[in-house]
Design a protein that fits this description.
- It comes from Microbacterium algeriense.
- One of its GO terms (molecular function) is ATP binding.
- The protein is built from 17 helices and 20 strands.
- It is of the alpha/beta class and about 550 residues long.
- It has three domains: about 10-255, 3-Layer(aba) Sandwich (Rossmann fold), CATH 3.40.50.300; about 265-340; about 355-560, Rossmann fold (3-Layer(aba) Sandwich).
- Helix 3 runs antiparallel to helix 4 (about 130-145), helix 5 (about 155-165) crosses helix 6 and helix 13 runs parallel beside helix 15.
- The longest helix has about 45 residues, at about 260-300.
- The radius of gyration is 32 Å and the shape is flat.
- The two termini are about 55 Å apart.
């Protein structure tokens, strides 16, 4: 590409490196996404960014990448080694080819390559007086280009695409012809190949098979710069995060000691909040008791007292300054302050709150819940064959297989939304099924508590307490219109509906999607001792590992085998 030059005078001093946000805010119209956040990314940091979908995690990466300017505050971005940003949903110009997309994604490295080419042109045209400084300029640019692996970047991109399952893609092909997942993996492959000092990755493990995940993690383990990753993958968090940044309601909190440290800190925060709530309740009770005692004492004092020295009928009015009046006034003021500034309890961990009689298994526990025998389903562009499958009370099943193989179709067949074309499908009388779907329903209307009441059949007067009892929502959230909730909040509403249902069989389709890792941990724990049968479709590696005792159904190319 370019000849290699070296000169002692071209060796640069150690470059200043800084990536920091100070009181940075981002607002879109009337929606405040990030609110006065401070964050410093060190040269070897491994930060995992977590939070509900829609909380502002991707926006945070855009600000760190310098592609989005904050509405207020300051961004200090000075990284000579460059920044690579792999978005979850990359967007490219109309008519762009894959090659154009790669050039755009490489950004500063392609610019560095052009600068180096111009420097060589100037060196070739330089006179003897200008030749030495021009050689130094070329050598400096060349050092930067070589340190990023610029001469070998296209070969690395091809290798990364192959490892991520999109190898052999024609670079002349319109990038719009790629699926959303393929465009995301293209962006990821370019970022990992760019040699950038700071990698910003948005959900890099999405839709990757085990082989691709292994390659990705090995590649990141070899990265010597900083890493900021938005992820819900708990195994990924556990392996790479040295600190966790949680985005919630426009603010961020940073927790050290990786993912385990985050879980410990959150539990400690919950206990401290619970203690503060108990102290507040005790103070309210003490103040109410003081108020009642002084009111009783005041009532016991007669309104008139016979004056000394008189043996008949002359009385003076009772004094009102016995101290009780003052104490009553102060207690009332104290009680008003306490009630105006309540200390709410922390959200309870996720839990099932169905009554015991509704959780009890059906009669005849030895009778299977469902039996499928030689079942075939046919629909244009979709088919599924199940040779034999029996689901017993309390059993645990894990459905595995590649994307598009028919796993969701199988769950919809179990719940009765799809009808088999042939075979035997026996459902136990009175069987109750709850279904947590993979995608949220965007057609819902009303507040969260109204939707919950309708979907669960809960009386409106009881719906608020019933929804809050699951530990999935905080008080004010349940009164928001569902159209204004984030994807993660709507997913929690779907989960609350499923958990509040009376079920003997629970179907979970990618239950970890759009939920923060801590909530997934709670969901796993809540299911351990539940008497219902559970059938789960998931790519979550930790969930699958924890479900090692579950029996498996493999779905591949429309064929389900147990």
């Amino acid at each position: 590409m370019f000849p290699v030059l070296s000169t002692p005078s071209a060796t640069p001093a150690r470059a200043h490196r800084e990536c920091a946000l100070q009181a940075a805010s981002v607002r879109f119209a009337d929606h405040l996404v990030l609110d006065r956040i401070d964050l410093v990314v060190g040269p070897a940091d491994r930060l995992a960014v977590i939070g509900d979908n829609g909380a502002g995690k991707s926006t945070l990466l855009d600000v760190l990448a310098g592609t989005l300017l904050p509405t207020a505050g300051e961004v200090r971005l000075d990284l000579p080694g460059g920044v690579a940003h792999a978005r979850q949903n990359p967007v490219f110009a109309d008519g762009a080819t894959v090659a154009d997309a790669i050039d755009e994604l490489l950004g500063d490295l392609r610019a560095l390559e052009r600068d180096l080419g111009r420097a060589y042109d100037l060196l070739a045209a330089a006179g003897s007086a200008d030749r030495e400084p021009q050689m130094a300029a070329v050598a400096l640019l060349q050092d930067r280009f070589e340190s990023r692996g610029g001469y070998d970047v296209d070969r690395r991109i091809d290798t990364a695409l192959e490892q991520l399952g999109v190898g052999g893609v024609d670079r002349a092909r319109p990038v719009a012809a790629l699926s959303g997942g393929e465009r995301a993996r293209l962006a990821l492959a370019v970022a990992l190949s760019s040699g950038a000092e700071l990698l910003l990755l948005d959900e890099p493990t999405n839709d990757l098979d085990d082989r691709a995940l292994t390659w990705l993690e090995d590649r990141l383990a070899a990265h010597r710069g900083a890493l900021v990753v938005v992820t819900h993958d708990r195994d990924f968090l556990d392996r790479f995060a040295t600190a966790v940044v949680q985005v919630e309601e426009g603010r961020i909190r940073r927790y050290g000691d990786g993912y385990p440290g985050f879980l410990r800190a959150h539990e400690a925060e919950r206990r401290a909040a619970a203690a503060r709530h108990e102290d507040w309740k005790a103070e309210v009770a003490r103040t109410e008791s003081l108020l009642a005692a002084n009111a009783f004492r005041l009532q016991a004092i007669p309104r008139k007292l016979e004056l000394d020295g008189f043996g008949h009928g002359a009385f003076r009015a009772r004094s009102r300054d016995h101290g009780a009046v003052g104490r009553i006034r102060m207690a009332k003021e104290r009680l008003a302050r306490l009630r105006d500034n309540p200390c709410p309890p922390p959200p309870e961990p996720l839990q099932f709150v169905v009554a015991a009689e509704d959780r009890a298994p059906l009669d005849e526990p030895d009778e299977p819940l469902l039996t499928l025998d030689a079942v075939s389903f046919r629909e244009p562009g979709r088919r599924l064959d199940v040779s034999h499958w029996t689901i017993e009370s309390g059993s645990r099943w894990l459905v595995t297989g590649p994307n598009g193989a028919g796993k969701t179709t199988l769950l919809r067949l179990l719940v009765g939304e799809l009808l088999p074309a042939s075979g035997t499908f026996v459902r136990r009388d009175g069987l109750r099924i709850a279904f947590l779907r993979q995608e949220v329903d965007t057609r819902l209307r009303g507040t969260a508590v109204e939707v919950f009441a309708v979907r669960t059949g809960t009386p409106p007067v009881d719906a608020r307490d019933a929804l809050l009892a699951h530990g999935l929502f905080r008080g004010p959230e349940v009164d928001r219109d569902v159209q204004g909730l984030s994807v993660g909040q709507r997913r929690r509403l779907d989960l609350a509906v499923a958990l509040a249902s009376r079920f003997d069989l629970l179907l979970l389709d990618e239950p970890t999607n759009h939920l923060d890792p801590e909530l997934v941990e709670q969901l796993e724990g809540a299911l351990v001792d539940h008497p219902a049968a559970v059938v789960t479709v998931t790519h979550d590696r930790r969930w699958r590992r924890h479900a090692a005792d579950a029996r498996c159904v493999r779905v591949d190319e429309g064929v389900a085998t147990t």
